[in-house]
Amino acid sequence: xxxxxxxxxxxxQPRLIAQAAELLRLGAVICYPTDTMYGIGCDIFNQKAVxxxxxxxxxxxxxxxxxxxxxxxxxxxxxxxxxTAYRLMKKCLPGPYTFxxxxxxxxxxxxxxRQKTVGIRVPDSPICxxxxxxxxxxxxxxxxxxxxxxxxxxxxxxxxxxxxxxxxLIVDGGELAPEPSTVVSLLDDSPEILRxxxxxxxxx
Length: 204
Hints:
This protein is α/β, with parallel strands linked by helices. It has helices spanning 14-25, 47-57, 72-78, 83-92, 126-135, 156-163; strands at 3-6, 30-33, 38-41, 66-68, 97-102, 117-121, 139-143, 169-172, 182-185, 192-195.
């Protein structure tokens, strides 16, 4: 059964964040709250942990997961960011958006699509931000939801019920009103909305 760690969603306790980051560093798969919903993730550089997430989600290997970075500066290490893309992202990050970009050589192959693209988020979540800073690496980001698309998991209790036997840690950040992120392709200078979710798309 997963350990449950209650962390203040507004003022995350550094000691508890350090515990979660250390587990990620050791290859743990965790559930955690974001600015959109509870997610499942791991250190993107731990291939064994990434493969576990594929198994948990029952996802084919040719559909890579997106991942979270701590900042726009951080994004530019893992994705090729044009001047247009930079200006657009600067307006709305951190926020509930996933941006599709050409991946850089730093991105592990298991996280790249066949077209060598990546999906990257900078969530507006103090817990996520603190975790990313403490770990020092991007964290894989996929929704903690059951196969029924309408069955959103709102709390750590819900997450534990469905994923508690499959993950190592659940970070309890309180109850959320789940809504997926808006996915925007920035592969060229004309942004393309691939999925409408939380977040204002008028910016694009």
